[in-house]
Design goal:
Length: 185
């Protein structure tokens, strides 16, 4: 039995694959039972109907449909088969060859800007400061309930205040960076 695999997200046809028998279920049911690969169907796609820059997409879990794909390359020869290069929504580049697709280029992750790096550093510091506040909340509660003296709580109270002030500063810096403004540290 043949299965026709498609991409989990785009539902784009990937390749044809021969099915494998499930030995236990075949024995239990007394008939051939195949292991169904994820994101596959037994509905055979019509690969002969494709023109350049067209792809097959498995729609609604029922049937294959021809759709236009953004065409970015030239038609080249690949072992006697016509090949087209395609770029998908997630910027992967595929070649259509031998009735399937193969990845030929993976996207290059965008370079982080100085602003992006600063934002990540500030967010990380905020997480640490909030953790400190959460870890010392019990002391604030003990103080509020009169179970901890002013003297015993003085240093923690000051540090907690400083942490809240710093969190507000960092959040303000992040907001400025996200607006694209120059930030003075």
């Amino acid at each position: 039995m043949k299965f026709y695999l498609y991409d989990e997200k785009t539902k784009q046809f990937i390749k044809e694959q021969e099915g494998h028998l499930d030995p236990l279920e075949t024995k239990v049911q007394g008939k051939n039972v195949y292991i169904v690969p994820p994101f596959s169907t037994t509905e055979k796609p019509n690969l002969t109907c494709l023109k350049d820059n067209e792809i097959l997409v498995f729609k609604g879990g029922k049937k294959w449909q021809v759709e236009q794909e953004f065409y970015v390359g030239k038609i080249v020869d690949c072992q006697g088969e016509r090949v087209s290069k395609y770029v998908t929504d997630n910027d992967l580049t595929f070649e259509k060859c031998d009735g399937g697709f193969k990845i030929v280029e993976k996207p290059v992750p965008p370079q982080k800007t100085e602003s992006m790096i600063l934002i990540e550093q500030y967010q990380s510091e905020i997480v640490e400061l909030k953790k400190y506040l959460a870890d010392t909340d019990y002391k604030a509660i003990k103080f509020a309930e009169g179970e901890l003296s002013e003297e015993a709580y003085r240093e923690d109270k000051s540090q907690r205040h400083d942490a809240r002030v710093r969190i507000n500063e960092l959040e303000s810096l992040i907001e400025e960076l996200e607006k694209g403004k120059e930030v003075v540290k």
